[in-house]
Write a structure and sequence with these properties.
Elements lengths: L20 H8 L3 E5 L2 E4 L1 H20 L3 E2 L5 E3 H6 L2 H4 L6 E3 L5 E4 L4 H11 L8 E10 L14 E11 L2 H22 L3 E5 L9 E8 L5 E6 L5 E3 H6 L19 E16 L1 H5 L3 E3 L5 E3 L1 E8 H11 L1 E2 L2 E2 L10 E5 L6 H16 L4 E4 L5 H11 L3 E5 L1 H6 L1 E6 L4 E5 L3 H9 L1
Helix pairs in contact: 1-9, 2-6, 2-9
Length: 425
Amino acid sequence: MLFSKLLLPTLKDAPQEAEVVSHKLMLRSGMIRKVASGIYTWLPLGLKVLKKVENIVREEMDNSGAQEVFMPMVQPRELWEETKRWEKMGPELLRIKDRHDRDFCLGPTHEEVITDIIRNNVKSYKELPLNIYQIQTKFRDEVRPRYGIMRGREFLMKDSYSFNIDEESLQETYLIMRETYKKVLERIGLEFKISAADSGAIGGDSSEEFHVIAENGEDTIAVSDSSEFAINTELLLEEGQDISTLEGKPSPDGKGTIEIKKGIEVGHIFKLGKLYAKSMKANVLDSNGEASTLYMGCYGIGVSRLVAAAIEQNHDEKGIIWPHNIAPFDINIISIGHHKNKEITSTALKLYEELSDMGYSVLLDDRKDGYGTKINDSELIGIPLNIIIGKKYLQNNEIELIGRNGENSSNPIEDIKTILDFFKN
């Protein structure tokens, strides 16, 4: 991609409404633009990152044995009344009417729709277990949308729903999803904790949250400094415990001491049991030929929220520092004097083509701007490796390599291996 052709409206300063780092940097770097309160358009740079996160999630879900579907965002009132959530969800559920005065809602989640599909199409325990997922836009009418993509009204989510014949089978699927979410976050390259949590409006027997550790996290979690133990402090407050005193004390699992950290909830997994299946009469024939109510689990991960969480955890005063696996581009070629020197122009284009043919996602900054503007924009949008073609090339046949992590070196342009090794490290 040529920088001069890319729709990338960067800003020197973020609007005053932007409160947290991710919101400020996503606006400044030209990733998103606001359409209405809590509703954003993803511009090309932001969409490239969003799609990379989405693909990681999809690959790991497919690897887990889950099957992908695509359900409607608009859902009929009748399904939600079966579970009594039409009223229970309150104003967060955006209700609409069609031209025939029939009631619908914009789906914040899809338990009712998927349960209806399964009860009408799966008849025997022999067809179980099933784990069905989708990656789709959700809408929750937040009372106070804030923090940009992190707490918007419209967002992209991966939600999946498992159907099992008994509690033992449900536990097996639940643990598979737990490991799948860990793999997703590890592949993206994020520090995270899994904490016991309140099941909230979804309900069910038990649940766990996946938190990306970040200073601007909305949740407070108590974690062990030496093990995986973590718990959302909301649960402790409900039990009447004073969280100002679970810090510095021994961890309940006997490993290390408790620290209080801020986290961004990016995933939540639930064991629903028979909660939805019973109210919607979702049954199959068991091994004895008798009707058996299904056991369910549901598993959500915020695809768009993961983008914001990655920024909250990976940035500096210059801008975003993307983990390599979700960076919008792998390499940025900064061509100094691109329109003034034919040798620089031809060299930059040749290197661009060569690296692209090798499978790298490459941006070529062919703008007429000077080095300062170009490197500042590159650091703002967080490209992992910059290759500078300018005076050093003309004088010594060398290109300068500048990593977003601050490392730099100069190498002969023929030494492509060094360029690639520098990038990979």
